[in-house]
Amino acid sequence: MTKLKAGDNAPNFSAKDDQGNTITLSDYKGKKLVVFFYPKANTPTCTTEACNLRDHYKDLKDQGYEILGVSADSQKKQSNFKEKYNFPYPLLADEDKEVIKAFDVWGEKKFMGRTFDGIHRVTFVIDENGVIEKVIDKVKAKIHTEQILE
């Protein structure tokens, strides 16, 4: 699981989003940012989590937050996921896992008796200066916005 914690500087990153635009941490300088990592687009829990953030997007924006979703899915999969559910925020297509590894959310997972490497569902709340304010490593998909704002 991630070794990053509140008070650490967020890792600098650069990756393509669902539209092919290059997104970097410095694009959000002076803004609060929520970066949520999810295992796979269009899977039940990932969809619930992303839709919760969509449904409460105005509440998050009213509190000054920008949102960025990250998975190792291709740009096309991210684009389809975003269009299907009408997400108002960018989804990074981190196929080479550079952002995922920079945030240290790649590692061993257990599911239905199997052990494998994958993306851990972790959310980082980053302040205007690029410092991590909060790490949510026990994400509750249905109430994720509440977890961010509490």
Automatic annotation (TrEMBL):
Residues 4-150 form the Thioredoxin domain. It catalyses: a hydroperoxide + [thioredoxin]-dithiol = an alcohol + [thioredoxin]-disulfide + H2O. The keyword Protein transport does not apply. The active site is at 46 (cysteine sulfenic acid (-soh) intermediate). Keywords: Antioxidant, Disulfide bond, Oxidoreductase, Peroxidase, Redox-active center. One of its GO terms (molecular function) is thioredoxin peroxidase activity. GO terms for biological process: cell redox homeostasis; cellular response to oxidative stress. Coiled coil: none annotated. InterPro entries: AhpC/TSA (IPR000866), Peroxiredoxin_AhpC-typ (IPR024706), Peroxiredoxin_BCP/PrxQ (IPR050924), Thioredoxin-like_sf (IPR036249), Thioredoxin_domain (IPR013766). PROSITE patterns: THIOREDOXIN_2. GO terms for cellular component: cytoplasm. Transmembrane segments: none annotated. Its EC number is 1.11.1.24. Monomer. NCBIfam families: PRK09437.1 (NF006960). Belongs to the peroxiredoxin family. BCP/PrxQ subfamily. Thiol-specific peroxidase that catalyzes the reduction of hydrogen peroxide and organic hydroperoxides to water and alcohols, respectively. Plays a role in cell protection against oxidative stress by detoxifying peroxides and as sensor of hydrogen peroxide-mediated signaling events. This is thioredoxin-dependent peroxiredoxin. It comes from Gelidibacter sediminis.
